[in-house]
Amino acid sequence: MGPERIRGIIYEVLMKVDEKLVRRIAHLARIKVSDSDVQHLEGELTSILGFVELLSEVDTDNVEPMTSAVDREMFERKDVVTDGGYPDDIVKNAPERDDHYFMVPKVVE
Amino acid sequence: MSELTDLTIATARKGLAKGDFSAVELCEAHIEATDAANDALNTFIVTTFELAVKRAAQSDKRIKSGDAGVLEGIPLGIKDLFCTKDVQTTAGSHILDKFTPVYESTITKNLFDDGAVMIGKLNLDEFAMGSSNETSYFGNCINPWKRKADDAHLVPGGSSGGSASSVAARLVMGATATDTGGSIRQPAAFTGTVGMKPTYGRCSRWGVVAFASSLDQAGPITRTVEDAAIMLKSMASYDAKDTTSVDLPVPDYEKKLRDGVKGMKVGIPKEYRVEGMPDEIEQLWQKGIDWLKSEGAEIIDVSLPHTKYALPAYYIVAPAEASSNLARYDGVRYGLRAEGDDILNMYENTRAQGFGAEVKRRIMIGTYVLSAGYYDAYYLKAQKVRTLIKRDFDEAYKKVDVLLTPTTPGPAFAPGEKGGDDPVEMYLNDIFTVTANMAGLPGISVPSGLSLEGTPLGLQLIGKPFDEAGLLRVAQTLEDAAGLLPTPDKWWV
Asked: Residues 219-278, chain B: which have Cβ within 8 Å of A?
């Protein structure tokens, strides 16, 4: 994707940080937002996305994305069980539990 | 003898070995100092005094029997981002309400195995997201320093504000901290302490609450460079439980600390001379250059052309990784749960109540830049820019051994002074520190003087990957030239 196209997308976005987009992102992020939150967030998200738009002027054609900050060989481990066997500890901090189960509101009718 | 709380880790270790005082006495002196300060400074989220005295007593036994570890009996504070077994761990967030880990982070285990004594868990910006310690659910943490002209409180910087303030106020001898975009070095600069972010992979991230996994790195905050060397040696280790931990031997960082900088090449990156930089920062930088030059270092101008893109790229990469890491807080397995009619409602209500405004903002930015159709334009683009930033450093390190820059664009400010209307204003605090995170490089902030307002300023050194030893050596030279800063007045007593 060339810089022009990226600039285009970002421009579209800046034009579109509106109530609808804020609510869509909030839903994707599973965060409930109030009407007054939405108003704030519109301005704040616009400001942040405007700030990062600076990147569109960098030519990144033929540049590989960074996958690791430090040059090193990928570490491989043996595919064996090395841990586990303490269900009491696993559920210890759960806000609601029953025996070794996490309890949640009903998901299937 | 001076007060026990004024000792450095290095001197306290000698005193303990000689029997000048006991670990329990040393511990109690710090408990007393903490007790007197915490209402005013709010540096601790929880104190663990009883546990501390118990551990100090065990240290005394080991000192007597000749089994003392390298940090035996040394009172430390632990940033409340490190999971500590059976001691609440909050990450400064309401959403980790009542969370008590059943395991110990690798770093705290290393420190405790070496005999360190934990005084308590330290305040921080919520999930380490902030540059002023104003986003903690447990309230603002306050800087022990004040401007000479007025009595206003100042922020300690962030996110490791509690770590920096506690060390500066002499409540603990050293503290653990973490740095994702400058969260060790910036608060160190604001409080007149030494803050070191090691190379990515040097210290294990296992058991440290994750913010942005490709950037997060833990390190020490101390009052001297020597103490930083001592603490880092204990914190660093190879850890199979962290897949990005690097399997390299941990050198003795104290060994070459006083070898000086004669013949070393110090790079001055011209892009760090930013528009609108205050004169006093410019002058401090020049002083640093002069100090190293007079100690025999060769000063070389270098260019890091992609510097100005580091912060915007950071504000894509860090929120993206945060939105993914923080997806785990859903009210099911640990922490807060808010009720809801169905499971989706329960998630949404829990996260709305549990996260603060700054964390929500970053999760939402991250969610957005990773959402369908935008990944290439944002995250991938930012990771490509990161490659270019790293390449700039690789080029520079063909010519120089270390880089010298200011740590921050200005001194500590007052709570509420920055970022109220526009979050980006606060983000600009990390402009000089964030590059080292983007490239995975080690960096250290050394207290180097006072601002016109009478508050601390720091100079930053950025080193080659895994050359913490070389970095500390230059830092020691800077510290020797600058001299130790005065102790802040104990206005809270």
From this structure: 240, 243-244, 246-247
ipTM of the prediction: 0.92
Over residues B332-356, the mean pLDDT reads 97
- On chain B, the residues whose CB falls within 8 A of the CB of A20 are none
- Does B142 map to a domain? yes
* pLDDT value at residue A9: 61
Does A16 have pLDDT greater than 90?
no
In a domain, B128, yes or no: yes
CATH 2.30.30 fits A3-57, yes or no: no
Chain A residues close to B348, C-beta within 8 Å: 27, 30-32
> Of B82, B97, B83, B100, which Cα lies nearest the Cα of B137?
B97
B344–A58 C-beta distance less than 8 A: no
From chain B residues 463-492, the ones with a CB under 8 A of any chain A CB are 465
In a domain, B433, yes or no: no
In our burial notation (b when 16+ CB lie closer than 10 A, e otherwise), range B187-205 reads bbbbbbbbbbbbbbbbbbb
Give just the sign of the alpha carbon dihedral A17, A20, A22, A27. Answer: negative
Distance CA B293, CA B481 (A): 11
Give chain B positions within 8 Å (CB) of A55. 309, 312-313, 316, 381-382, 385
Number of structural domains in chain B: 1
Is the pLDDT reported for residue B480 higher than 70? yes
In a domain, B210, yes or no: yes
- Among B243, B346, B364, whose Cβ lies nearest the Cβ of A29? B364
User: Which of A7, A13, A33, A58 is the mutation pick for testing B, counting most B CBs within 10 A?
Assistant: A58
Q: How far off is chain B from A98, nearest CA to CA, in Å?
A: 12
**For the residues of B189-235, what is the DSSP string, one character each?**
HHHT-EEEE--TTSS--TTBPPS-TTT-EEEEEESSHHHHHHHHHHH
B159 as an active site residue: the answer is yes
Q: What is the CATH number of the domain that holds B32?
A: 3.90.1300.10
Q: B59-91 pLDDT, tens per residue?
A: 999 999 999 999 999 999 999 999 999 999 999
Contact B246 A72 (CB under 8 A): yes
Domain boundaries along the sequence of chain A: 3-57
Q: Using one digit for the tens of pLDDT, what is the confidence trace for B179-191?
A: 999 999 999 999 9
